[in-house]
Specification:
About 65% of the residues lie in helices and about 0% in strands. Helix 4 packs parallel to helix 6. It has one domain. The longest helix has about 35 residues. The protein starts with 10 loop residues before the first helix and ends in a 27-residue tail after the last helix. About 5% of the residues have low confidence. The protein is an all-alpha fold.
């Protein structure tokens, strides 16, 4: 049984974590580890840290897009396969968001990377829709329109749902 990942606290630890992220290995362990880490946010380290993170996120996003392209090529316009390719890309985009929105990262980093991922996902969606519209398959166009690459996660609502306030009646 392998040992869990160490929570990064130094610049060197973060560089290793970014490499693991880039390679796409141990994703769930990595998210847990970085959420417990500490970012060494000093003036000299901040720029290098941001650069390394940017390189890792870009590489991971590019790999996801490349895989998506391969899966679309194999789909050959078959609706179910196109949906499966979109859903696989959606999972990758979702993981990218989970990574960059870790509470460990400063807010300005989280915002910058989230916006960049969102912009890329939207561009991909628009490109895919334009490519599908070039064909004459209206069903495939609807499939792509109704299967977005980017799905916004709902904001967490910490307020409890009051009991007994539903309109549903149970009849015995």
């Amino acid at each position: 049984m392998s040992e869990g990942l160490k929570s990064p606290t130094t610049y060197a630890d973060w560089v290793s974590s970014f490499q693991i992220f880039r390679d796409g290995q141990r994703d769930e362990e990595l998210v847990v580890a970085i959420s417990k880490g500490k970012v060494p946010w000093t003036k000299g380290v901040a720029e290098r840290f941001t650069q390394k993170m940017s390189e890792a996120v870009s590489a991971r996003l590019q790999r996801a897009v490349d895989q998506f392209g391969k899966e679309l090529g194999r789909a050959q316009g078959e609706e179910n396969n196109v949906v499966q390719a979109i859903l696989a890309l959606r999972r990758q985009i979702s993981y990218l968001f989970r990574f960059v929105t870790s509470p460990t990262f400063p807010d300005e980093i989280t915002k910058k990377f989230s916006e960049e991922i969102e912009k890329n996902a939207q561009n991909l969606q628009n490109y895919l829709l334009e490519e599908v519209k070039k064909g004459s398959n209206s069903r495939l166009i609807r499939v792509v329109q109704h299967t977005p690459i980017l799905v916004k996660q709902p904001e967490t609502n910490e307020a409890p749902i009051p009991m007994g306030k539903t309109k549903r009646r149970i009849i015995f």
